[in-house]
Design a protein that fits this description.
Number of strands: 17
Oligomer: single chain
Distance between the termini: 32 Å
Helix content: under 10%
Number of domains: 1
Strand content: over 45%
Number of helices: 0
Order of helices and strands: EEEEEEEEEEEEEEEEE
Structural class: mainly beta
Amino acid sequence: MLYGAQSNGLVIRNNAALRTSVFYGGGGSEVFVNGLLLQANTVENCGGNCYSIGGATGVTLEDSVFLRDRPDRFFIYGTTDIIFGSVEGINVVRNNDFNRRGETEGGPDGCAIDFETSATGVVLSGNTISHSWGAGVMIFGHATTSHGLNISGNTFDQAGCE
C-alpha cells in the first residue's frame, strides 16, 4: 500500500505474488500517482481486490496475469482483480490474462475489472477475461461522471453476468 501526497513515474514490474490480500492499493486518499506502470506481474489467489487504482492519471497495466483470485473465506463484497476509481487522462489496460475470480458461482461480485466511481479515458484492449463468476467488466451507473471508456478487441470466455 502506498502512502504519501504524490508519486510520479512509479513502475511495478516483473513481480509474482501468491495469496496476498491486495497486490497494489494506491487509490483514493492514500496517494496520487502520475504515470503508473504495472507491467508483467503475476498475482494468484488474491484474498481481497488485487489492484485498487484510484487517484491516478496516466496508468498503464499490461502483460500481467491474474489467476484464480478468491478469498480464503466468504467475502460479502466479492473479489475483484482491478477496481478503478477516480482516474483521469489516458489510462490503458492491455494484453492481460484474467483467469477465474470470485468465491463461488453466483456469489457476489467477482469481476475482472470494476469501475467503482468516475473514470475518464480508460482503454481496455487485447485482454482475455475467462471464468469471472461476477462480471467480466462492471461499470456502475455513473453516466454523468464516467466517460471516454473504450472496450475493444478483448476476448470474453464464460465471463459471468451481463
